[in-house]
Amino acid sequence: MSRVDVYDVVIIGGGCAGLSLARELCRIPTSPKTLVLESRGNYVNDKTWCFWASNNHHLYHLVSKEWAKWEISTVSGDAITHSASGRSYQMIRSIDFYNDALDIIDREPNVNVRTQAPVFGIRRDADGLEISLPDGAVYARRVVDTRPPTQKKLQSATLLQCFMGHEVETERPVFDPHKAGLMTDMRDDGLGFRFVYVLPLSSQRALVETTRFCTTLCPKAQLAKDLEEDTRNLLGGQDGRVIYAECGALPMGMPATEGADKEVYRAGISGGALRAATGYGFQNIQQWAERFAYSLSGYGSETHASASKFQSFMDEIFLRTLKRHPDRSAEFFHSIAATLEGGEFSDFMSGYSRLGVWRRIVQSLPPRPFLNTLLHRQDNIASQRVVVR
């Protein structure tokens, strides 16, 4: 390239995936010249990320709360409590993650972040990749695009995990601070499968989220109504002071988006970071960021680790069955939780299950709904082949 201001790497999007990669690039011996382009003007606490881990990972200092036990329950009160030796369910607040990453980046002269920098387009010219910005353009040898999927792309997912939550504080103790409520009060309310996600930060403070599995984006008004109802039931008539709120939708079973150029890599949710059947992805993003950083030295890989063909197939059948049977989804998840031990369940949710665990999961579930989904899938494949011919 003949231009003077050329970056080795331009990262579009300074969220979880973008900043994870930037901080990893700061850690390698010779950091490449890197620019992170972020559309927002400033960082605020807008998300929470949770995962299962031990206490010796490199982001443990950012964990604001962890739980040794977690619960899965139906609305009828059938509850299962899990725990796993050597690991806990951990929470990181996004603002702590952002600030920590930005502090590391600030100390590395070769890596920079530019805020208020929305990207209008990427194109290849004779000298490489041109990234269009409101005030001009920057140029790069390779681009990592971590921008979230468009609403149109979200609709290609088998299901959407739509949620709305808030952190509430009460005057009197109401929460068990030693146990996370992963999927509580699971039920079908006529509009679809829903549950409550409860992360107690103390006996008087918790993040409460109402969650629905939907085929299309759930209206915010409906989620707000659900959240009000779920919070009222949890607090038992107490008033709660809202400290923080969040809302979003996670695609479940969405095909990964390909980059428009061989040197444009998609990452984050659009790049396939989430576990299809559950929506967990924070750890996968951290592992990808480390691999990508090392790939610049000739090692590692630029893309997210793909699920095995077997896991992708099993996730597809599971999600399609959830879609066909929202009235039985609580039964399915409860059966899995009842069959697996705590460590096995956390592996299943994170996407690390071994073949023997999958065998037990299959044996725990009622066969007919899943066999019907499989037969329906085979019929669709056969009809598509006929059309092609």
User: What's the CATH first level of the largest domain?
Assistant: Alpha Beta
Q: How much helical structure, as a percent, in the residues?
A: 25-40%
How many separate helices? Answer: 10
Supply the number of structural domains. 3
- Largest sheet properties: 7 strands, mixed
Beta-strand content: 25-35%
Query: How do the SSEs run, as a string of H and E?
Result: EHEEEEEEHEEEEHEEEEHEEHHHHHH
Morphology: globular
Structural class, by secondary structure, is: alpha/beta
The span between the termini is 47 Å
What's the assembly state of these chains?
single chain
Task: Indicate the CATH topology of the largest domain.
Answer: FAD/NAD(P)-binding domain
The radius of gyration is 22 Å
Q: What is the fourth-level CATH superfamily of the largest domain?
A: FAD/NAD(P)-binding domain
Mean pLDDT: 92
Report the uncertain regions.
385-389
How many strand elements? Answer: 17
The CATH architecture of the largest domain comes to: 3-Layer(bba) Sandwich
Organism: Parahalioglobus pacificus
Protein name: Lycopene cyclase
Pfam families: Lycopene_cycl (PF05834)
InterPro entries: FAD/NAD-bd_sf
Structure notes:
The chain has ten helices and 17 strands. It is of the alpha/beta class. The protein has three domains: 168 residues, FAD/NAD(P)-binding domain (3-Layer(bba) Sandwich), CATH 3.50.50.60; 94 residues, 2-Layer Sandwich (D-Amino Acid Oxidase, Chain A, domain 2), CATH 3.30.9; 80 residues, no CATH class. Strands 1, 2, 8, 9, 10, 11 and 17 form a seven-stranded mixed beta sheet that branches. A seven-stranded mixed beta sheet has the order 6-5-13-14-15-12-16. β1, α1 and β2 form a beta-alpha-beta unit. It is globular, with a radius of gyration of 22 Å. It starts with 5 loop residues before the first strand and ends with a helix. The C terminus is likely disordered.
